[in-house]
């Protein structure tokens, strides 16, 4: 079992420079809030000159009603309308330019957030520059499995090894805990035929080593180490999610699942990742901070069009399957933790065997790991 450490992501705590840029973003937002009168008037004049925003306004009202969104005052509403409008225009032009294979975007629940606000709220942070780009895939237990011995597609949801989609919530970058929890739930079900949601909150409260910081990012590897050392992890029912870090209350709680350790998938190798996912759900990190991710609706991310993400690992999900869609596009099936009302029931398909990169699309093959049970 591997012992290497270090990580990026919604995973990594904010660096000085990222909190500086965060401060700059917040300052910018507050400046916009502090002097919105001129901003709004200017926007109104622009739209009046362009023949009116009435269609877009109607679309915004309908969206706000559908999502139960209310705003503090008319100035905030005007500001949110401008953000919505810009996102809606992005969605429309992306969808119009897409071919048959291309995925579709939509004005989803994140449509009144700028990409910067979205990134702050849902886990994005610039990756530390000293992140080791290669991790040694020591003790890869699936390394000797032949490709011809694994199925051409697999879906761990259908196989009953995946719990319901969770929602990490606004302003809590705890994706790392949900990614690790889903991987543990998967191998536990595969070994015991008992599907149980395990406690992401316990990981946030109790797995607090060098890299793990509750709502302020963390690392799945360290979470697996904690669960191994602790002799297991409680169920979600026994130790429920609170969307903020608290004191560790694991003592006296019954272990709902346990693991013996974890291993890394050899990096930058989608074949190795496939051999692992063929056997169990796998924790994956990737760039989930872009507008396409934010506003994703359906289809395969990255199919039939140019690069729409980077390899800055800022988010963590769980690979729960792979396959080939009706257009012949090979994909990974990823479980996210942004609620079941994002993308396809909370899941996203991402291009697999990416010809354009060795890292996997959005860096998905750069740092994958899985618990051993
Ligand atoms: C990977 O292994 C090589 C050679 O054994 C070593 O030099 C390197 O430091 C290792 N990298 C990491 C991230 O552990
Ligand atoms: C894979 O096969 C090689 C050669 O047969 C063997 O030395 C090695 O221990 C095997 N690795 C695993 C993880 O089973
Ligand atoms: C990728 O991983 C597979 C399975 O472990 C291995 O057989 C293959 O040699 C690896 N490819 C590269 C380029 O390292």
UniProtKB/TrEMBL annotation:
InterPro entries: Papain-like_cys_pep_sf, Pept_his_AS, Peptidase_C1A, Peptidase_C1A_C, Peptidase_C1A_papain-like, Prot_inhib_I29. Residues 150-372 form the Peptidase C1A papain C-terminal domain. SUPFAM superfamilies: Cysteine proteinases. The keyword Ubl conjugation does not apply. The chain crosses the membrane at residues 20-43. PROSITE patterns: THIOL_PROTEASE_HIS. One of its GO terms (biological process) is proteolysis. The keyword Transmembrane applies. Keywords: Disulfide bond, Membrane, Transmembrane, Transmembrane helix, Zymogen. This is Uncharacterized protein. It comes from Oryza brachyantha (malo sina). The gene is LOC102701556.
């Amino acid at each position: 079992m591997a012992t290497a450490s270090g990580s990026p992501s919604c995973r990594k705590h904010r660096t000085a420079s990222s909190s500086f840029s965060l401060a700059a973003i917040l300052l910018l937002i507050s400046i916009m809030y502090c002097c919105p009168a001129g901003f709004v008037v200017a926007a109104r004049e622009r739209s009046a000159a362009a023949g009116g925003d009435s269609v877009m306004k109607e679309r915004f009202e309908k969206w706000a009603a559908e999502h139960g969104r209310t705003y503090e005052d008319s100035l905030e509403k005007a500001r949110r309308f401008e953000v919505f409008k810009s996102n809606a225009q992005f969605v429309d032009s992306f969808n119009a330019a897409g071919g048959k294979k291309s995925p579709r975007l939509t004005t989803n629940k994140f449509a009144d957030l700028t990409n910067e606000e979205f990134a702050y709220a849902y886990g994005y942070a610039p990756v530390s520059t000293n992140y080791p780009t290669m991790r040694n895939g020591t003790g890869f237990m699936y390394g000797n499995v032949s490709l011809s011995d694994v199925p051409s597609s697999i879906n761990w949801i259908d196989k009953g090894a995946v719990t319901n989609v969770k929602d990490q919530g606004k302003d809590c970058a705890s994706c790392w805990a949900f990614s690790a929890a889903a991987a543990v739930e998967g191998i536990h079900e595969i070994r015991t035929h008992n599907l149980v949601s395990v406690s992401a909150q316990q990981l946030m409260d109790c797995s607090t080593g060098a890299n793990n910081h509750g709502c302020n990012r963390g690392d799945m590897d360290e979470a697996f180490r904690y669960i191994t050392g602790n002799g297991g992890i409680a169920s979600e029912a026994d130790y429920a999610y609170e969307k903020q870090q608290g004191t560790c209350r694991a003592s006296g709680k019954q272990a709902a699942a346990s693991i013996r350790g974890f291993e890394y998938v050899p990096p930058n190798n989608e074949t190795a990742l496939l051999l692992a996912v063929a056997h169990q759900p796998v924790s994956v990190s990737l760039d989930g901070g872009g507008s396409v991710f934010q506003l994703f609706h359906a289809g395969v991310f990255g199919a039939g069009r140019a690069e729409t993400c980077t390899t800055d690992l800022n988010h963590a999900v769980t690979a729960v399957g792979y396959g080939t869609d009706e257009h012949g596009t090979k994909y990974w099936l990823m479980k996210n933790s942004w609620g079941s009302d994002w993308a396809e029931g909370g899941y996203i398909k991402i291009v697999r065997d990416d010809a354009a990169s060795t890292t996997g699309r959005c860096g998905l093959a750069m740092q994958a790991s899985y618990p051993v049970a």
